């Protein structure tokens, strides 16, 4: 009698299913274990347990700055990791590790992929701008190169924007809600350069660009909570990004189509009286295959450039105004530098370059506050080994502890004290004239990142900031009602100036000036 028994069809199917699942999941489990072994070799600030790490991750939301400073102090020049709700983030410090990041290939450490992850850029800032980053070349070259030729437009819009937004009198103090007012002024000034008159003064266009800057950040936070398959639907129905894009198209489409018609009429991208602005520069760069879906491609990139310009410049300008209002004694030495330079060279890009004390003041305010506790974020696309042997596994986001570096007493004397002319004093020494300027490469200053991904718009931003602060100094007296610097807003590692703080303005008379 035969004892052989065959498996039923159901059993066979279950067995095959089990084998199939094993071939999928066992390598993934092994990959996860290998990744965790590498992460476990990096010291943790906070708890590293399976469940206790979530408690530390919740603490990071409100105490990120203190946690990062703890790691920076405890592990100087080394890497450490902190738990976040959805991942581990590796944070590094020290000149050697920062240089390793700067020199790393984009195939190893990707700036674009890190921004894609944190800002959900495919759904907030537009996938085409990530896939083909020609807007970066536009910012780096024509936008920066034309600054001198177009500086008069910037200056004209700054004067008009301040007159409209801060119509202070010489006889009484006027309270101004600072952050939102600054965002309107910066939006107008930047867009005078980007798209020109009259659009730069259109109330809905100004409001749109401010709202888009806020909506992109808020949308990214929402999108991070959902798996990839749901993100297109979440973007459409739970964020304001599609509405912002629709409104921007309404403002910009006719301008873009008019320029395309001119190209067709003259058979060339160079035609008489062609506007020298961001739309033209983007269209010049968008040739060949880049001309597909051209309206969306140009509109999304104009919004993206506005996002970068308005966010960083508004934060920096507001911080500078807060420090100026809290330290009114700084106004006079800054005026004594600005006014003779303007008298000789006018309000020009060349004049801005000669204002070393103003440059130092702006750089010092950003050293003290910045736009966050971390910078130079990268996503490791494959395992990356630092010079000291530290291995960061693929799939990990790593950043530089910029707040710790900017407040390190080994790098800065009295690091928590405002020394407005710290950097101009350094530049006055022999051989140091070109060093320590805000736009320069400074291994102890990380506001604009570093390496090949150093902010391409920093020259435009710094010159615009100098012109903005210069206008405040020559046209107004400012102060806080109580004389105290307002508490900033920290969310995780991100910093923003107090959005409720008011600064008092009074118009300077010719006699007081």
From TrEMBL:
The keyword DNA damage appears for this protein: no
Pfam families per UniProt: p450
Gene3D superfamilies for this protein: Cytochrome P450
Binding site for heme: 455
Record has 4Fe-4S as a keyword: no
Gene Ontology molecular-function annotations: heme binding; iron ion binding; monooxygenase activity; oxidoreductase activity, acting on paired donors, with incorporation or reduction of molecular oxygen
Taxonomy, superkingdom: Eukaryota
Transmembrane residue ranges: 12-30
Keywords associated with the record: Heme, Iron, Membrane, Metal-binding, Monooxygenase, Oxidoreductase, Transmembrane, Transmembrane helix
UniProt-listed CDD domains: CYP503A1-like (cd11041)
Cofactor(s) recorded in Swiss-Prot or TrEMBL: heme
Family that this chain belongs to: Belongs to the cytochrome P450 family.
Name this protein carries in UniProt: Cytochrome P450
Origin species: Lentinula raphanica
Taxonomic lineage of the native organism: Eukaryota, Fungi, Dikarya, Basidiomycota, Agaricomycotina
């Amino acid at each position: 009698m035969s004892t052989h028994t065959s498996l039923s069809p159901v059993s066979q199917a279950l067995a095959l299913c089990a084998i199939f699942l094993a071939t999928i999941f066992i390598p993934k489990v092994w990959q996860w274990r290998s990744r965790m072994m590498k992460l476990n070799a990096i010291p943790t600030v906070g708890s590293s347990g399976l469940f206790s790490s979530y408690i530390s991750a919740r603490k990071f939301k409100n105490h990120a700055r203190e946690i990062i400073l703890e790691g920076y102090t405890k592990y100087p020049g080394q890497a450490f990791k902190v738990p976040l709700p959805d991942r581990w983030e590796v944070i590094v410090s020290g000149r050697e590790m920062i240089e390793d990041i700067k020199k790393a290939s984009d195939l190893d450490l990707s700036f674009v992929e890190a921004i894609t992850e944190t800002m959900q850029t495919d759904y907030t800032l537009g996938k085409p701008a990530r896939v083909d980053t020609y807007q970066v070349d536009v910012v780096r070259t024509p936008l920066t190169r034309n600054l001198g030729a177009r500086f008069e437009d910037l200056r004209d819009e700054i004067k008009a924007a301040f007159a409209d937004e801060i119509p202070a009198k010489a006889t009484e103090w006027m309270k101004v809600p600072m952050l939102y007012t600054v965002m309107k002024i910066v939006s107008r000034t930047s867009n005078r350069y980007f798209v020109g008159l009259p659009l730069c003064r259109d109330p809905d266009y100004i409001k749109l660009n401010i709202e888009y800057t806020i909506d992109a950040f808020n949308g990214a936070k929402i999108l991070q909570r959902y798996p990839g398959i749901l993100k297109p639907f979440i973007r459409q129905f739970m964020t304001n990004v599609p509405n912002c894009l629709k409104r921007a198209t309404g403002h910009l489409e006719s301008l873009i189509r008019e320029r395309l018609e001119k190209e067709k009429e003259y058979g060339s991208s160079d035609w008489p009286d062609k506007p020298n602005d961001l739309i033209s520069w983007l269209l010049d760069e968008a040739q060949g295959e880049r001309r597909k879906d051209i309206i969306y491609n140009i509109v999304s990139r104009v919004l993206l450039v506005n996002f970068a310009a308005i966010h960083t410049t508004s934060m920096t300008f507001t911080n500078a105004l807060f420090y100026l209002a809290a330290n009114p004694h700084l106004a006079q030495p800054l005026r004594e530098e600005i006014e003779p330079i303007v008298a000789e060279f006018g309000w020009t890009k060349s004049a801005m370059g000669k204002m070393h004390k103003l440059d130092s003041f702006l750089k010092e305010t950003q050293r003290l506050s910045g736009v966050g506790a971390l910078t130079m974020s990268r996503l490791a696309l494959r395992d990356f080994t630092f010079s000291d042997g530290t291995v960061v596994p693929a799939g990990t986001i790593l950043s530089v502890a910029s707040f710790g570096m900017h407040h390190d007493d080994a790098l800065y004397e009295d690091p928590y004290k405002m020394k407005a002319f710290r950097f101009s004093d350094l530049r006055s020494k022999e051989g140091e004239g070109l060093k320590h300027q805000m736009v320069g490469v400074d291994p102890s200053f990380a506001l604009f990142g570093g390496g090949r991904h150093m902010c391409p718009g920093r020259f435009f931003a710094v010159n615009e900031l100098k012109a903005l602060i210069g206008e405040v100094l020559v046209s107004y007296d400012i102060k806080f009602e109580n004389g105290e610097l307002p508490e900033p807003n920290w969310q995780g590692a991100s910093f923003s100036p107090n959005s409720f703080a008011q600064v008092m303005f009074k118009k300077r008379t010719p006699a007081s000036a």
